[in-house]
Known about the structure:
Number of helices of chain A: 0
Shape of chain A: globular
Number of strands of chain A: 11
Radius of gyration of chain B: 13 Å
Largest sheet of chain B: 7 strands, mixed
Number of helices of chain B: 0
Largest interface: A-B, 28 and 31 residues
Structural class of chain A: mainly beta
Strand content of chain B: over 45%
Oligomer: heterodimer
Distance between the termini of chain B: 36 Å
Distance between the termini of chain A: 39 Å
Order of helices and strands of chain B: EEEEEEEEEEE
Number of strands of chain B: 11
Structural class of chain B: mainly beta
Strand content of chain A: over 45%
Largest sheet of chain A: 6 strands, mixed
Helix content of chain A: under 10%
Shape of chain B: globular
Order of helices and strands of chain A: EEEEEEEEEEE
Amino acid sequence: SQQGEEDPQALSIQEGENATMNCSYKTSINNLQWYRQNSGRGLVHLILIRSNEREKHSGRLRVTLDTSKKSSSLLITASRAADTASYFCATDGWEGGGADGLTFGKGTHLIIQP
Amino acid sequence: EAQVTQNPRYLITVTGKKLTVTCSQNMNHEYMSWYRQDPGLGLRQIYYSMNVEVTDKGDVPEGYKVSRKEKRNFPLILESPSPNQTSLYFCASSLTAGEGYGYTFGSGTRLTVV
């Protein structure tokens, strides 16, 4: 099954700066989702972008999707210490009608320095 | 509060001693899934269920069993645990699969098999 691949693996920035994470995937998708995970805790759904959408916003989050390049980016603006977490992209593919669920990348670990 | 509840949060067991990790959701979701998370490997799907009495293998099903007798519950069974099943396990649910709904995750079960 296809797998998203986040880049970079780790990112450390100063509070107030913007953080950008990228995700690449391999095959056609229905939609792509981003999740946040605080250390050892469950993942929290952040935002979903469908294959026919190019950009989506939610608060300080901005997601873009380029299906021709099979890539997505997550931008967090005006970062805060509480944004420190791991961020995962997950693809919902069309194989089998999407019944096999989401396939996750390995994540980007974001550290916001105060 | 809408949630996915996993129990136990932590479990240390010995090789070969059967165990069950419970998962329950209160959102009337049709789709439920189990993932394991390992360093460097990300999240990998173990089993999923489209609805009551409908289950199927994910990417890493060996050594695991599941059942879906009721809509709200989706237990993960390790009949004869081995040390390579030491991992962080997550249960997740979604309204339905393949329609672009986000997943709700449980808080995780950290399993150690000695």
